[in-house]
């Protein structure tokens, strides 16, 4: 049993570093490590084949990134002491907002812990502001999303996505915390204290490594099926979306506003938003509209709105959702004015 | 009658936690009731700040990871 665990622990780190290598290698060498399958003109294929050639292209191009991302996700799940980290932002100060935004990307890889941590941040005394900052930042700027934005679209877009998410999440947390209805919610939960497990199990490095492999597998099983279906659906948009329609609606000021708004009801599975944005960019969407789309949709996700509404009520939820869309559009306009391209 | 509560939102890890709890109860052959709490508000009121979590007779035994069947059996036999 113990030698089997050692082998699994070694396997976890080998897979992680191999994934990292395949991500870094093309950046340094300029060519991909393994051949990439290219399909040429997508709309010339038989419609039945389109999802397959599309997926074949992405799988040959990005399998290293997938491997790296899922292993990193597993390692974060197994090694990061979440409760210890949330304790760092337990005060009502500007520092708490900053740390909530900074730690959010590594606090929840698995969405099952998202809302309990959100509630926990309110309960340990930081209040609703940093809790919201965490809630908005975690899905919009998690490392999976940022890595794939960088790999598929551009490093500049990835940096903009991270930077603007960071600023917007802090701003919204700060603004919402000042509203009377959010304060009423805070008072309701002020007396709750977090339950502590009587016995904390200490795990050694090997056990944690084995767990990271297990967590990576859980992530793959949760994310990959929806991702494959999502990307297959996106292939038709890439093949058949009329260029003149995209050029007419998803550019300029109108494009930014549409981009910020449509992401919310469209609710795409994890990572599919990046593939969809890439397809729309191919069809002529403006980069500024793409940024607004990548910010608005993931931040204001409907499942997390429904989940937290049980705790903070619909009034506070709608306040942060409206602000989220508004700031996503503002970020798009800033990008359009000062950066423009990819 | 031991009361085991699993806190989760239906994610794969939370389901696995519930399975492991049921398995532990079966292996020990004790009388226990395993329930799954999905309500986020209830979790917060009980002080649960991470998932999956397990409470045995109202006491938190694990939070933020899937416990092994062996571990749960140990916790259960200490309580008896």
Describe the structure.
The complex is a heterodimer of chains A (342) and B (80). Chain A has 342 residues and is mainly α. Chain A has one domain. Chain A is 78% helix and 0% strand. Chain A contains 15 helices and no strands. In chain A, helix 13 (272-282) packs antiparallel against helix 14. Chain B has a single domain (2-79), classed as Glutaredoxin. In chain B, strands 2-1-3-4 form a four-stranded mixed sheet. Chain B has helices at 12-28, 40-45, 69-79; strands spanning 2-7, 32-37, 53-56, 59-63. With 80 residues, chain B is α+β, with helices and mostly antiparallel strands. The relative contact order of chain B is 0.27. The interface between A and B is medium-sized, with 33 and 31 residues.
Ordered list of secondary-structure elements with their pairings:
The complex is a heterodimer of chains A (342) and B (80).
Chain A lengths: L1 H28 L20 H30 L2 H5 L7 H14 L6 H13 L1 H13 L2 H11 L1 H23 L2 H10 L15 H36 L2 H7 L2 H15 L5 H11 L4 H13 L2 H37 L4
Chain B lengths: L1 E6 L4 H17 L3 E6 L2 H6 L7 E4 L2 E5 L5 H11 L1
Parallel strand pairs in B: 1-2
Antiparallel strand pairs in B: 1-3, 3-4
Helix pairs in contact in B: 1-3
* Radius of gyration computed on alpha carbons of chain B: 11 Å
Report the average pLDDT across residues of chain B: 89
Order of helices and strands of chain A: HHHHHHHHHHHHHHH
User: In the CATH hierarchy, what is the class of chain B?
Assistant: Alpha Beta
How many strands in all of chain A? Answer: 0
Question: How many domains of chain A?
Answer: 1
CATH architecture grouping of chain B: 3-Layer(aba) Sandwich
Q: Total helix count of chain A?
A: 15
Strand order of the largest sheet of chain B: 2-1-3-4
> First CA to last CA of chain B: what distance?
10 Å
Proportion of β residues of chain B? 25-35%
How many strands, which pairing sense, and closed or not: the largest β-sheet of chain B? 4 strands, mixed
Shape of chain B: globular
Number of domains of chain B: 1
């Amino acid at each position: 049993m113990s030698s089997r665990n050692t082998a699994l622990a070694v396997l976890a780190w080998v897979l992680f570093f191999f994934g990292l290598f395949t991500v870094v290698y093309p950046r340094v060498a300029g060519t991909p490590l393994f051949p990439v399958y290219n399909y040429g003109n997508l709309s010339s294929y038989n419609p039945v084949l389109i999802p397959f050639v599309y997926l074949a292209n992405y799988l040959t191009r990005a399998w290293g990134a997938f491997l790296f991302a899922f292993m990193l996700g597993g390692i974060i799940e197994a090694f990061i002491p979440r409760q210890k980290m949330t304790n760092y932002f337990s005060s009502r100060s500007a520092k708490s907002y900053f740390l909530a935004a900074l730690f959010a990307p590594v606090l929840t890889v698995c969405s099952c812990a998202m809302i309990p941590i959100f509630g926990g941040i309110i309960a340990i005394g930081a209040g609703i502001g940093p809790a919201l900052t965490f809630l908005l930042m975690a899905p919009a700027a998690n490392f999976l999303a940022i890595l794939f934005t960088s790999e598929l679209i551009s490093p500049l877009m990835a940096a903009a996505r991270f930077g603007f998410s960071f600023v917007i999440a802090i701003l919204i947390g700060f603004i919402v915390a000042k509203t009377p209805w959010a304060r009423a919610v805070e008072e309701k939960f002020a007396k709750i204290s977090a339950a502590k497990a009587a016995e904390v199990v200490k795990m050694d490095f090997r056990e944690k490594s084995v767990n990271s492999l297990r967590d990576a597998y859980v992530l793959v099983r949760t994310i990959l099926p929806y991702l494959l279906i999502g990307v297959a659906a996106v292939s038709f948009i890439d093949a058949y979306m009329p260029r003149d329609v995209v050029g007419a609606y998803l550019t300029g000021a109108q494009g930014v506003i549409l981009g910020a708004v449509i992401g919310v009801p469209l609710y795409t599975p994890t990572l599919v938003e990046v593939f969809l944005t890439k397809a729309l960019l191919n069809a002529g969407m403006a980069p500024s509209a793409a940024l607004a789309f990548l910010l608005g949709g993931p931040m204001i996700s409907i499942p997390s709105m429904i989940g937290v509404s049980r705790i903070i009520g619909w009034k506070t939820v709608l306040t942060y959702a409206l602000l989220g869309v508004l700031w996503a559009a503002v970020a798009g306009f800033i990008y359009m004015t000062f950066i423009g391209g990819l | 009658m031991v009361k085991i509560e699993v806190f989760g939102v239906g994610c794969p890890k939370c389901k696995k936690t519930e399975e492991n709890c049921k398995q532990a109860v079966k292996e020990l052959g004790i009388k226990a009731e395993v329930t799954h709490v999905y309500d986020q508000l209830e979790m917060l009121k009980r002080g649960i700040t991470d998932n999956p979590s397990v409470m045995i007779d109202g006491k938190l035994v694990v939070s933020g990871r899937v416990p092994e069947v062996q571990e749960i059996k140990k916790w259960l036999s200490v309580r008896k």
